[in-house]
Amino acid sequence: MQTNTYEGLHIINKSQSITRDQLVIEAPLQININEKPYTVVMRTPDNDQDLVLGLLYAEDIYKKTTPIPFEIVEEKYEIPSIVNVTINKENLGKGYLNKRTLLSVSSCGICGKQQLEDLEVKGDKIAKEVLVDSDQLLEMFKPLQEYQTTFKKTGGSHAAGVFDNEFNLLSIKEDIGRHNAVDKCVGSLLQQNNLKKATYLLVSGRVSYEIVSKAFLAKIPVIVAVSACSSMAVDFAKEFGICLIGFTREEKMTVYSNPTFLQTKN
User: Fold this and answer.
1) Which position among 108, 111, 185, 229 bears the catalytic label?
2) How far apart are CA 187 and CA 64, in angstroms?
């Protein structure tokens, strides 16, 4: 269940009327690892297993493709509220062993990190160059827009889509949180053992540092956004070797990093 109907007071030019709107659901999900609480995320229910796997991958807790047991521990109003994943101790990554507590909310994927050093993402710069023209980038947004059924009902959710180097759609997910939608895509590709094919990450909203870091960890070389990019997102994209493109709409776009990756038609 991703939406619910709420009654409200609709006001136009001082004229009042009662309206019933569908709103996107935002609900907490507690993630336990080996029956011990690890974090709480605010998300739109559905695809919870994908969300958890994507988050654990981004936090360097579990990066193997071998399936891990996923159990719903508790539900509230028929929505999972606590889940548990079981991971053998030898497969737990440094992110868990560092014992950092993470609070993830839908609007800010880095809230709860305890120190500035926690923002550091290490790894070799992405060296894969991707050549694509602007028309092809705009075409890839069509399936993303068609999929956004929750957004069409509520206007309150985001979507992320991942494509391969031949512009084939690999995964597409919706969520109230931008970074949650990305985590769900990464998680679904991990389960399909398809993450290595990921070339383009399309997002329906703005791009922050968090989304750039998730793309880097998943080795996705191109990020294309409908909306704006933050200064930190641009700085990290340049450092990571990611082509970052914002304001991609109405035949327009702005390339903020690695512009040599992009071909435009005269």
Assistant:
1) 108
2) 11
